[in-house]
Amino acid sequence: MIRPHHFLPNPQTLADNGFQSQQLPSSAASIAKAAYHEVSQAYEVLTSHGIKVHLFEDDSSTTPDSVFPNNWFSSHHGGQLAIYPMYAKNRRLERRADIIAMLKQNYYVQHIIDYSGLEQDNIYLEGTGAMVLDHIERVAYTVNSKRANPQALASFCSHFNYQAMLFDASDNTGKAIYHSNVLMAIASQFVLIAPEMITQANKRDEILQRLKRSGREIITLTAQQITQFCGNGIELQGKHGALFVVSSTAYNALSAQQIATINQSAQLVPINVSTIELAGGSIRCMLAGIHLSPR
């Protein structure tokens, strides 16, 4: 996790991020202070459940979206790291050598595959924001967008042994979904997804059948629930078993039946990140998962 000292919704991402707030409710200083507090509280909640969190500070004023590290790197079983090409120029400044050095020091890292050079050719793939990875079935579910280039996706899938599932999705106004991880979340025993937002009927059916064949229960979300970040959750392993972490915004928008279904296999943990959600991302975007063996 990254704790920002100068958080602010990024003006360079406003055009294509339909989840980002157009109007800010308070001053930049107030927003930054609230975001700092929310990350601190999120850290406390996660660690109280037995989650090991590496918390890094960002005191730069040039990286307003640094609170979302899952977009610039991901880690994978077998000691592999991927570093990604980012669409917004100021987001490229988020990549940090000290974070990579920490991972090398604390975990077994054998290979680093750096795709960031693709930025020179205007080719982007924004990590586990652009891709929702099914680690069990080895599928990379990816919404078509300027932040998820098919060429880069094919390279990632070849390197990391995933099958690409590329599809179109849009909101009620017809605006393309900017990141896959606001549309769907895959846990061990269930999937949260809004099928109505997948615009291609054949792809919609294929995706749902693929997910059902994996044995997971499908929790169908509405387009309205997606705007409340209900699709932006993540499963983590706590000291007493599986947790499914969502924002308080998302939790309040879930139905009682949806909450009950999630709680059957994972403890649902809501965390307030309402200020950070002004930037168009939520709690899942804030967590870069570590899938490496500790030293």
From TrEMBL:
Family matches, as InterPro entries: Amdntrnsf_FN0238
NCBIfam families: citrull_CtlX
PANTHER family documented for this protein: AMIDINOTRANSFERASE
The protein, known as: Amidinotransferase
